[in-house]
Amino acid sequence: MTRVEERVVELERQVAMLERMIQLLGDTLDRRFERYENVIESQGRRIAELSLVLLSLFSGQHKQSAALRDRVAQLAPKNDVGGYYDMMDNSNESSGPPSAAAIGAAAGIAGAAAGAVGAAAADFPLVVQQQQQQQQQQQQQQQQQQQQQSHQRRGGVKFEFLKSPHSVEEVWKEYVEGINGQPSIKEMESLYQTGWRRDPAVNKRYARRKVLWRAIENGLARGYELEYIIKLLEEYRYIDREKGIKHPIGWICQNHNIPEELR
């Protein structure tokens, strides 16, 4: 085969690769627009739910205020207060000072009214304060759960890499999320730095897969979608697409097999 023919074959391969990339990019954009529409619709529902909550809250406060007024009216009726003023008017019309009985009755009525108002105010629910207390309790529970998980991981089992992963997605998930109940590689690095991979076999596997992790991180930093990056790497693994034959994961973990735009 001449050099020109080799060049033509290479160009055809590159054109086919570009066509697949454009198709993947188009599919990614369609899914992204659909996700945006779902987010907008979800936000609209949340706003409507919040409006209903606020309306019910204001309605409840109005009913509680009315109940408070009724209770004060029942515990300190106007007749008693009116009797107090009648006694004061009668005592003023007389030439002498008010009698001890009138003073005692007035003091009793005033004390009863003050006690009624105080009791009713103590029973009045503070909705905002209750909500704040609930939020604080939830935050404390979340912090306790995180601390427990952290303690379990620090005193936990020896980390084991996923053996013979079948896809790029599995390798990436092990790095950022963790699998089989184990913490992620990122968490292990954050907690123990290099102490968790002192075993030569573990460190060797870490170094190999780091090439693939870094390639995905480079693609994300350049604005590519994660789904597009994973599909692109899987495309490069194909030996025979029609038969579905691919290179093993170890092949794509070599730097010279990484696509140029992810290096």
UniProtKB/TrEMBL annotation:
InterPro entries recorded for this chain?
HOT1, TF_GCR1-like
Q: Superkingdom of this entry's organism? A: Eukaryota
One matching Pfam family? GCR1_C
One GO term under biological process is:
positive regulation of ribosomal protein gene transcription by RNA polymerase II
Coiled coil location: 1-28
UniProt keyword terms in alphabetical order: Coiled coil
Asked whether the UniProt record includes Cell wall biogenesis/degradation among its keywords, one would answer no
Q: Where is the Transcription activator GCR1-like domain?
A: 159-237
Q: Which GO-annotated molecular functions does the record name?
A: DNA-binding transcription factor activity, RNA polymerase II-specific; RNA polymerase II cis-regulatory region sequence-specific DNA binding
Q: What is the name attached to this protein's record?
A: BN860_12002g1_1
